[in-house]
From TrEMBL:
Keywords: Coiled coil, Metal-binding, Nucleus, RNA-binding, Zinc, Zinc-finger. This is CCR4-NOT transcription complex subunit 4. InterPro entries: CNOT4_RRM, Mot2, NOT4_mRING-HC-C4C4, Nucleotide-bd_a/b_plait_sf, RBD_domain_sf, RRM_dom, RRM_euk-type, Znf_CCCH. The keyword Transmembrane helix does not apply. Its main location: nucleus. One of its GO terms (biological process) is protein ubiquitination. It is found in: Nucleus. Residues 281-299, 323-335 have a biased composition (Low complexity). Residues 268-280 have a biased composition (Polar residues). Residues 27-70 form the RING-type domain.
Length: 357
């Protein structure tokens, strides 16, 4: 029996609706099931049905109006009330029992169909990465959990190793290739690991990585409680968008779903980076504005002190000029014409100051 996933999940929803519709009628005010006599009780001509208890309470403690049409109730006589006979009550009970039996049979049939269909379904796990091509020296869960390997992508919940396969047909354990199911606490870490491992080579072997898929637990499909506390399989309905049949997986539908998750992750990363850069630019602008304001304030508050510093600098410059003139006169007196020529050459070699604009 073949059934599509959309039909599968729709069947579960329809089953819940059917169960709700088959329930005994309830009073819309107190939400209690209507008694047999209440089933034929209509206190208002508009035929808005409530139980006799709520009708009496509206008359004694309320405004005496029908909650639906807002017309006044007749306190002496309801609009329609005919108590059921014993035969009518027995008929209602038989009908209810037959409906209950039919509902149980329908639920059992639906469960069997659903379980047979779920047995062929695989669900992509957003936080599970499956890697193949690992060398024998890395066939250790504790090693792979370390910061040098999968631990660098994020916090690892669990690592399960698959059985080794021989590369090149040889029997040597050094040529064995292992696979690993790595479960992260966060799906973002799994996508980050997936992107990095796509182009990773270890011991001259190119690794292959993809998001892992999980099947449904056999105990769950049989309607039993799973005896394994650490069972890795599913015990409830998975995400319908991430669920694929074998035919759909052979057609690569699960790979398309994985690529959509990757593109969504990259888009979120890009937006996050842009927001971070904007915040940094805003903080830098605010810091620069604060520094400029404080510098201007310091210059303004310096005032006369800055003028005093300028006067001191002017006096020092005058003293330096006087000393230079005295040194030149002494050199001219002692060196004669040769000294004058030397001084003239030094003056010609001295660079001219550039004009300031």
């Amino acid at each position: 029996l073949q059934i599509s996933l959309s039909q599968l999940f729709q069947a579960n929803q329809n089953q819940m609706v059917t169960m709700a519709d088959d329930d005994q009628s309830e009073c819309p005010l107190c939400m209690e099931p209507l008694d047999f006599d209440d089933l034929a009780f209509y206190p208002c001509p508009c035929e808005y049905q409530i139980c006799r208890f709520c009708w009496t309470k509206i008359l004694d403690e309320g405004n005496g109006l029908c909650p639906a049409c807002r017309n006044a109730y007749n306190s002496e006589q309801p609009a329609s009330f005919k108590p059921l006979t014993e035969e009518e009550i027995m008929k209602i009970r038989r009908t209810k029992k037959m409906k209950e039996q039919a509902r149980k049979q329908q639920q059992k049939t639906t469960d069997n169909v659903n379980k047979r269909s779920l047995n062929e379904v695989r669900v992509v796990q957003h936080n599970l990465v499956f890697v193949i091509g690992l060398p024998a020296r890395l066939a250790d869960a504790d090693v792979l959990r370390g910061a040098e390997y999968f631990g660098k992508y994020g916090r690892v919940y669990k690592i399960a190793l698959s059985r080794p396969t021989n590369v090149g047909g040889g029997g040597s354990n050094s040529q064995a290739s292992f696979g690993a199911y790595v479960t992260f606490y966060k799906s973002e870490d799994a996508i980050r690991a997936l992107l990095d491992l796509r182009n990773t080579e270890i011991d001259r072997r190119m690794l292959k990585a993809s998001l892992g898929t999980t099947k449904y637990c056999s105990s769950y499909l049989k309607g039993h409680t799973c005896p394994k506390p650490d069972c890795m399989y599913l015990h409830e309905l998975g995400d319908p968008n991430a669920s694929f049949t074998k035919e759909e997986m052979n057609a690569g539908k699960h790979n398309e779903f994985e690529e959509r998750l990757v593109q969504q992750f990259l888009s979120n990363q890009k937006k996050s980076s842009a927001n971070h850069n904007q915040k940094q630019a805003a903080n830098a602008a605010a810091a620069a504005s604060g520094t400029s304001s404080s510098g201007a304030g310091a210059a303004a508050s310096g005032g006369g002190g800055g003028g005093g510093g300028g006067a001191t600098s002017s006096k020092s410059s005058k003293k330096a000029s006087k000393k230079a003139a005295a040194a030149a006169a002494a050199a001219a007196a002692s060196g004669g014409s040769n000294g004058g020529e030397k001084a003239g050459k030094q003056q010609q070699q001295a660079p001219h100051p550039q004009p300031r604009h």
